[in-house]
Amino acid sequence: MKFIFADSLDYVDPAFDFIADRSPAERQPYWDDAYPHEILGYAPYDGVLVSKGIVGDHRVKGKYTASQARRFELVGARKFLRLDKPEFAHLDIFGDCGAFTYVNEERPPYSPAEIAEFYDDCGFTHGCSVDHIIFDFDVAAKGLDGGSNDAKDRFEITLENADAFRREAEAIDALFKPLGVVQGWSPDSMAEAARRLVAMGYDYLALGGMVPLKSPEIKQCLAAIRDVVPPATRLHILGFAKADDIDSFHSYDIASFDTTSPLIRAFKDAKQNYYLPGNGLGLRYFTSIRVPQALENPRLQRTVKRGVFRAEDLVTMESAALSSLRAFDRGEAGIEETLQNVLVYSAPLVEEKPFEDCKDATSMVRLATRYRDTLESKPWKQCSCSICEHAAVDVIIFRGSNRNKRRGIHNLAVYKDHIERLDLKRALT
């Protein structure tokens, strides 16, 4: 089972100064930055997925700048992503049309021929057909019953595009492996889409529309699809948001899946921001400690405007929290002192009140419990990856992109090891 990382320009500045809290003045974004496989010294994934919607163009505003998009198409995906070294030659590069970026459009803005040419010109190893996301879902709908008119239109558009995409790939003698994308509003409709894709000649299918579904619903879709496709048909799950639960999906013989979950949870999850291997084959999670920039955080600045705090007092509390955490890391401060300084600064952020006025609030008590667990465990000292060795306690501090994405990259490394352990378990059973 291959873990494919869905990239969105997720790089960090190797020269970032944690104490001064800034990058070198001469830093050039992208050119001086490092992708996960560069800063770790190895690839924490089996491949990378790049969405056409992320790259963008004149029709769809992507995340890439216009010059980055031009360079991507000029030099190709592998060189742009700096995967052109021999040690990364085995990594797959998946292409996706980025259906989420045009979800509100009546039809996809890209033609099958255009996307096939894009994948081939940019050197992708795998390419997904042009789909149109269906958000309807009714687990009880039988056959092709149920589903709105819009869902059924998107179903047919996705299949028509898949047929044309495969033909275009054959016509240009494309070097990438075409994947037919499955869309549907129920397990049965997705199974029917899969059956038709196999009849078209596809032997590798990508399941779309999985992001909002719960694990039991995804499993029902997989079971329905497996019932109608040949056993040799490979399955890929697009945007697999339940990646931490991947072991429970092993019976469906998933060939690959893509996700950003380990990285984005570093800064979008309220509690589970830092990964470590758990007992057995599970994962352990820790809460990162929020120490935002006092003069830049909107919530903190709101307390200043309301007269609850003075800006200079917030800066003093911020400095005390950071200094305590670093002293704690060096063994020069105790846990109680450190936790106290962190919570004093957390109170304006969480409750918009002085600590003494809200220390017994449920939110503060829960936060104190999670932070104490993080400080007592010192998870960053249990990891030998290059990020944790270099950043030390700063990897657990929730503060700015260079810390948060470093923590996310650490999570990718832990998650890749998790997948390998699961695969080893299956090989031995």
Task: Write up this protein.
By secondary structure, the chain is an alpha/beta fold. It has two domains: 2-259, TIM Barrel, CATH 3.20.20.105; 285-407, no CATH class. The chain has 16 helices and twelve strands. The protein has helices at 36-40, 52-55, 66-75, 77-80, 112-121, 149-171, 187-200, 215-226, 261-268, 298-305, 311-329, 335-350, 355-358, 362-377, 386-391, 400-428; strands at 2-6, 47-51, 92-96, 126-128, 177-182, 204-207, 234-237, 256-259, 274-277, 283-286, 289-290, 397-398. Helix 8 (215-226) links the parallel strand 6 and strand 7 (234-237). Helix 11 runs antiparallel to helix 12. The radius of gyration is 24 Å and the shape is globular. The mean pLDDT is 95.
Assigned CATH class of the largest domain: Alpha Beta
Give the strand line-up of the largest sheet.
1-2-3-4-5-6-7-8
Helix fraction bin: 40-55%
Q: Count the helices. How many? A: 16
Instruction: Estimate nothing, just give the exact number of structural domains.
Output: 2
Mean pLDDT over the residues = 95
Radius of gyration: 24 Å
Main beta sheet: strand number and arrangement? Answer: 8 strands, parallel, barrel
Beta-strand content bin? 5-15%
Intertermini distance = 16 Å
Report the principal-axis shape.
globular
- Could you say what the CATH architecture of the largest domain is? Alpha-Beta Barrel
Task: Find the structural class using helix and strand composition.
Answer: alpha/beta
CATH topology of the largest domain: TIM Barrel
Q: Determine the CATH superfamily of the largest domain.
A: Queuine tRNA-ribosyltransferase-like
H/E element sequence? EHEHHHEHEHEHEHEEHEEEHHHHHHEH
- What is the number of strand segments? 12
Low-confidence stretches: none
